[in-house]
């Protein structure tokens, strides 16, 4: 009887192995699933602490680019697994987490406010854990707290970056001027996406370059693009964003 039971067990195990052996290989979740996963992480890590995201001064006003809009930006700028993404003013870290999870690239960000940077740290750690659970390959992810214009690590990121994001719609003029000192160190071919253009510097109203102008804006080719209702958190209306490609 024992031998018969053993043989039944072995025969059954062989059938199960054949079933699993003929099944298609397991694959990770697609981009749409990852975006939903990010929304779940956001709901757990960011929404309960939204009071910390409300800034009073102009330079700390908080606004987000929505996940679907970010995916379009990543497609437009050809963000790949071997790319480096940098977010200047990374807020709660959602852009950094999304770039890493949906593209598998290295993704870094810097945030000035310590309370917001702490939220970003929580979100990034949750994203890393989810990537391990779901088998999603990601590059290095890091969000630091500090002044983007005075951080040596940020300068290293900028020099190596393939895509830099600056959600600078509410940046004061002085901060945009300081950002210009950073982006001049981007490598040729690298791309900067911003909500306010850096490309009009050194150009007069007729479109001609000022005599002797050497502003950083002249280092980039700039194209204007449209975003639409639902693409950003701060408005139901559309608007413009700018893609700068470093040419020198």
TrEMBL record:
Q: Which organism is it from?
A: Collybiopsis luxurians FD-317 M1
- Which Pfam families does this UniProt record tie to the protein? DOT1
Q: Which reaction does it catalyse?
A: L-lysyl(79)-[histone H3] + 3 S-adenosyl-L-methionine = N(6),N(6),N(6)-trimethyl-L-lysyl(79)-[histone H3] + 3 S-adenosyl-L-homocysteine + 3 H(+)
Q: Name one GO molecular function term.
A: histone H3K79 trimethyltransferase activity
**What is this protein for, i.e. what is its function?**
Histone methyltransferase that specifically trimethylates histone H3 to form H3K79me3. This methylation is required for telomere silencing and for the pachytene checkpoint during the meiotic cell cycle by allowing the recruitment of RAD9 to double strand breaks. Nucleosomes are preferred as substrate compared to free histone.
- Could you tell me where this protein is found in the cell? Nucleus
Protein name as annotated? Histone-lysine N-methyltransferase, H3 lysine-79 specific
> What is the activity regulation entry?
Ubiquitination of histone H2B to form H2BK123ub1 is required for efficient DOT1 methyltransferase activity on histone H3.
**Which branch of life, at top level?**
Eukaryota
Q: Which family does the similarity line name?
A: Belongs to the class I-like SAM-binding methyltransferase superfamily. DOT1 family.
> What Gene Ontology cellular component terms go with this record?
nucleus
């Amino acid at each position: 009887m024992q031998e018969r039971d053993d043989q039944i067990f072995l025969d059954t195990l062989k059938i199960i192995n054949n079933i699993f052996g003929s099944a298609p290989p397991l694959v990770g979740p697609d981009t749409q699933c990852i975006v939903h996963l990010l929304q779940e992480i956001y709901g757990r890590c960011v929404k309960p602490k939204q009071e910390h995201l409300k800034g009073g001064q102009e330079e700390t006003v908080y606004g987000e680019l929505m996940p679907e809009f970010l995916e379009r930006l990543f497609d437009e700028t050809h963000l790949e697994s071997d790319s480096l993404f940098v977010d200047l003013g990374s807020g709660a870290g959602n852009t950094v987490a999304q770039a890493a999870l949906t593209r598998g690239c290295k993704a870094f960000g810097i945030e000035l406010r310590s309370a917001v940077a702490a939220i970003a740290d929580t979100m990034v750690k949750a994203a890393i854990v989810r990537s391990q659970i779901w088998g999603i390959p990601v590059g290095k992810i890091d969000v630091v707290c500090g002044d983007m214009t005075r951080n040596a690590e940020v300068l290293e990121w900028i020099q190596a970056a393939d895509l830099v994001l600056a959600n600078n719609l509410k940046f004061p003029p002085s901060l945009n001027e300081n950002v210009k000192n950073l982006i001049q160190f981007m490598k040729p071919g690298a791309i900067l996406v911003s909500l306010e253009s850096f490309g009009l510097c050194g150009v007069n109203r007729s479109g001609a370059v000022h005599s002797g102008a050497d502003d950083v804006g002249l280092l980039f080719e700039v194209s204007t693009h449209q975003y639409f209702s639902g693409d950003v958190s701060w408005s139901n209306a559309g608007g413009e964003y700018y893609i700068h490609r470093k040419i020198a």
